[in-house]
Specification:
alpha/beta, Lyase, Ornithine Decarboxylase, Chain A, domain 1, TIM Barrel, 9-stranded parallel β-sheet, 6-stranded antiparallel barrel, 19 strands, 28% strand, elongated
Length: 368
C-alpha cells in the first residue's frame, strides 16, 4: 500500500477512498441479495466510468442515471441496462431514440402528456410512472390512483412500450434522523405505493415492475416488501448528511476534499481554505450540539498518511462559503498549529454535488 503523496496536491482536490467505496458497494450488493431484490445503483453520485467498474465487479448489471448525457457516457462504457430516473424531456427525443437502439432503456414519466413523446420513438423502451408518496418533488400524487391506473394502461397500449412500472424516490428520508424516523418514512412510502398498485386496473396491474430507493432507507432497512428493485446511489461515498441522519458511520464516508489553507484569523477562530461553493456546493446541515447552530458545509477530518481516519476533528468545520473561499471554524490550539499551505481534509455535506462540481478526482487506496 503506497502512502498518499500530499505534496502533489496544489489546489482543491476530491479524494476517493477505494477501500471504503468498494466496501460500501459490496455491502449494498449483499443486502439486495438477502432482501431478494435487484440492485440498480444510481450513478449520478460518482458519474465515473472507472468507479462504475467497481460496481460491475461486485455484480451490478443495471444502473440508473439522471441525465441523457450521463446515460450516453455509461452506454459508451458498455452498460446495457440503463434507467433515466428523471422525467422525460421531449427536447431530447433524438438522443433518447439513439440510446434506446443501443441498450435496454427505461424512461420515467409523470403525466399523460409524456405519451405524445413516447409515440414518436422508433425504438422500444420500458416506462416507469413516478409516484410521489410524500417527498413533493416530482411524480403523481399517490392519492390520484385513478389517474395512475389510466396512465399505466394507456402506456401499455403503445407499441413502443415493452413494460410499465412504478417508480418511487422517498427523498423525504433525507430529513429523517435515526433508524426509527427512517423506518417510518420507509414503511409509509411503501404502504402508499402498495395502495397505488392495488388500484391499478388490468392488464397493467399484473405486470407492474416496482422500483424504489434512496440511500437512507436502503442503508438502514433490511426488507423492501412489494419492491422488485432498489436504487440507492449516495451509498458509494456517503457524506456528512448521511452520517448526521444515521444512515452511515464516520468510517463509511469514502469521499473528501483536500483543501489548502490560504488565510489564518486566530482572533476569530477561523482559517480560510481554497474550497468554496463551486467545490463544496451550497448544501449544509445544522446541529446545535456539533456545529454551534451554524450551517456546516463540511467537516474537517483527521488526516493520515493514507488519506484520513474515520474520525472528525471536533470543533473544526466549514461554516461559510463564497465562490472560491471556505471559512473554517477551528479550535484556537489547532489554528496555532496550522500554517499557510497546509491541507485540511474535509468531508462535504453532500458528496453527489461535490463530485458533480469537481469532475476530476484522485483515487487513494485508503486504510483497511
Amino acid at each position: 500500500m503506497t502512502h498518499l503523496q500530499w505534496q502533489h496536491i496544489t489546489g482543491p482536490r476530491v479524494l476517493v477512498d477505494r477501500f471504503r467505496a468498494q466496501r460500501n458497494i459490496q455491502r449494498m450488493q449483499q443486502k439486495a441479495i438477502q432482501a431478494g431484490v435487484q440492485l440498480r445503483p444510481h450513478f449520478k453520485t460518482h458519474q465515473s466510468v472507472e468507479i462504475g467498474r467497481w460496481f460491475r465487479e461486485a455484480g451490478t448489471h443495471a444502473i440508473a442515471v439522471s441525465s441523457v448525457r450521463m446515460a450516453q457516457q455509461f452506454e459508451s462504457a458498455g452498460w446495457r441496462d440503463i434507467m433515466l430516473a428523471i422525467p422525460l424531456n421531449p427536447r431530447e427525443l433524438s438522443a433518447i431514440n439513439q440510446l434506446a437502439g443501443n441498450c435496454s432503456l427505461t424512461l420515467t414519466i409523470e403525466s399523460a402528456d409524456a405519451l405524445d413523446t413516447i409515440r414518436r420513438l422508433s425504438q422500444d423502451v420500458n416506462l416507469m410512472i413516478e409516484i410521489d408518496a410524500g417527498y413533493g418533488r416530482t411524480g403523481i400524487d399517490w392519492q390520484q390512483q385513478r389517474l395512475i391506473s389510466d396512465l399505466a394502461n394507456q402506456a401499455l397500449q403503445l407499441p413502443q412500450v415493452r413494460q410499465v412500472g412504478l417508480l418511487l424516490h422517498a427523498g423525504n428520508s433525507y430529513q429523517a434522523s435515526g433508524d426509527s424516523a427512517i423506518q417510518q418514512v420507509h414503511e409509509e412510502s411503501l404502504q402508499r405505493l402498495a395502495e397505488v398498485k392495488a388500484h391499478i386496473a388490468e392488464p397493467a396491474q399484473s405486470q407492474l415492475f416496482v422500483s424504489a430507493g434512496d440511500t437512507p432507507t436502503c442503508s438502514r432497512m433490511q426488507s423492501f416488501p412489494g419492491v422488485d428493485e432498489i436504487r440507492p446511489g449516495n451509498y458509494v461515498f456517503y457524506d456528512l448528511q448521511q452520517q448526521h441522519i444515521g444512515a452511515c458511520d464516520w468510517d463509511d464516508i469514502a469521499l473528501t476534499l483536500a483543501c489548502p489553507v490560504i488565510a489564518r484569523y486566530p482572533e476569530r477562530n477561523e482559517v480560510v481554505v481554497h474550497a468554496g461553493a463551486v467545490h463544496l456546493s451550497k448544501d449544509y446541515l445544522l446541529s446545535k450540539d456539533r456545529y454551534e447552530g451554524r450551517p456546516c458545509y463540511g467537516q474537517v477530518m483527521q488526516i493520515s498518511e493514507h488519506g484520513w481516519h474515520g474520525k472528525p476533528v471536533d470543533g473544526a468545520f466549514v461554516h461559510g462559503l463564497s465562490q472560491e473561499h471556505g471559512k473554517v471554524r477551528m479550535p484556537p490550539a489547532l489554528i496555532e498549529q496550522t500554517r499557510l499551505g497546509d491541507l485540511l481534509v474535509i468531508a462535504p455535506a453532500h458528496s453527489c454535488l461535490t463530485m458533480a462540481a469537481m469532475h476530476d478526482f484522485m483515487i487513494i487506496q485508503g486504510t483497511r
